[in-house]
Amino acid sequence: MKMRMLEEDELFPSTPGKVKIERVNHRQFHRCFASTSTMFLWALFLVALTASYLSFQSFVDTSSRYLSASWGGLHWEKQIRASAQPHRADAAGISVLVTGAAGFVGSHVSLALRRRGDGVVGLDNFNSYYDPSLKKARKSLLSSHGVFVVEGDVNDDKLLAKLLEVVDFTHVMHLAAQAGVRYAIENPASYVHSNIAGLVTLLEACKSADPQPAIVWASSSSVYGLNEKVPFSESDRTDQPASLYAATKKAGEEITHTYNHIYGLSITGLRFFTVYGPWGRPDMAYFSFTRNILQGKPITVYRGKDHSDLARDFTYIDDIVKGCLASLDTAEKSTGGGGGGGGGVKKKGPAQYRIFNLGNTSPVTVPTLVSILERHLRMKAKKNVVEMPGNGDVPFTHANISYARAELGYKPTTNLDAGLGKFVKWYLSYYGYTRGRKNV
Ligand SMILES: NC(=O)c1ccc[n+]([C@@H]2O[C@H](COP(=O)([O-])OP(=O)(O)OC[C@H]3O[C@@H](n4cnc5c(N)ncnc54)[C@H](O)[C@@H]3O)[C@@H](O)[C@H]2O)c1
Ligand SMILES: *[C@@H]1O[C@H](CO)[C@@H](O)[C@H](O)[C@H]1NC(C)=O
Hints:
This protein is an alpha/beta fold. The chain has a domain at 177-275 and 316-359 and 398-412: 3-Layer(aba) Sandwich (Rossmann fold). The protein has helices spanning 2-11, 16-24, 26-32, 36-68, 74-84, 104-115, 132-144, 157-166, 183-186, 188-208, 244-263, 285-294, 317-330, 366-377, 402-408, 416-430, and strands spanning 95-99, 119-124, 148-151, 171-174, 214-218, 267-272, 275-276, 298-303, 311-312, 315-316, 353-358, 364-365, 382-387, 433-434, 437-438. Helix 8 (157-166) runs parallel beside helix 10. It is globular. Mean pLDDT is 87; it is low at 1-33 and 57-65. Residues 231, 233, 400, 402-403 line the site of 2-acetamido-2-deoxy-beta-D-glucopyranose (NAG). This is UDP-glucuronate 4-epimerase. Belongs to the NAD(P)-dependent epimerase/dehydratase family.
């Protein structure tokens, strides 16, 4: 928010000084226009000046448009094709378009695919919901492994059409979204833009592609909302969302179902449960707690009604990545005709539609999370315990993962203690600490 306002200030500086100068020069101007011939010359001069200004403006305009267009051209297409090319020895590799590739989960999934020899092209708009330098750093990491990340928005239908035309993607891993539950109070439109409009734009592009890719995308455990039946099973009700974020994810499940039904797109929705780990998201509690503890600042710990502790089914990133790859590997092909678009896209038969919980099945309370962090950081937290405000958070989450276990062979293996140990190790090294002290 702050950054955007700053940019606007820089683009439109206030101009009170100019008014003064004009007033001072008023008499001089009058004398110059005294004779008609001088007036004619002045007019000519002004016309020439305006013309040259206008042509300069249009030059600036086209060149800046050219420079800001971060996609297109033969060289760009070559980079996309190279990045999408599988390198598996058994020639069984897949080609995946990963949206949100500069994000936390997207960067991990992209790397894992690349490591096993699949082709990967990333797409991300690098928005400033949290520090974009972390997204740039993830992009650099991907680029050093040969994964190309396109800077663009999932709402850009022309870019999507071009990407799907240049490469016959077998799969789309759709992870781009406006995440976070509380930010929806501040900026509701960003959730509609990315999670609703962006999703529809992506599905439109996929249904028209020939061949149609299979789609695996991130829903969220937040769709269970005020559900009190534990553990949360896929068949439980999901019609009581507690936040706009949850409502947009639930809408996504319905929207993808429509595209599956009409156009034969193969759809797998994954309800992630509080994912954490190295390269994580700075807006999440485990991350901001770590930052504040290291800086000696207090942390705010929410408590539920009747002084009950909040609990989350924290899931380590490597386990989530395994679930994502298994989803891609078990996804059936889409059955739509693709090609031509224009409403001629008929499905040849029903396509696969699946929804899985990807959690850890062992909820941990927030005070326990804090004490594990304190142990790994070897520092005490200054805790500010307050009652949870009713702005979107739910009191607890707990996944039933038996369906994912049966269909995907999904079996989480990292508990919160081990996972936070790895996160803290990454955090200290990424932000230049040597065991609690910052190296400047
Ligand atoms: N991390 C979790 O605990 C968690 C839990 C449940 C669901 N999810 C879902 O998993 C997915 C990945 O989450 P994450 O934790 O990696 O979040 P993230 O914010 O780190 O990653 C999302 C990425 O998408 C990009 N993006 C956002 N809007 C875009 C747009 N319109 N066009 C192009 N790029 C856009 C962002 O720049 C960001 O890099 C999201 O869909 C999220 O809602 C995450
Ligand atoms: C977990 O989900 C499965 C369906 O995938 C269901 O059969 C089972 O009863 C659920 N278990 C519990 C404890 O809710």
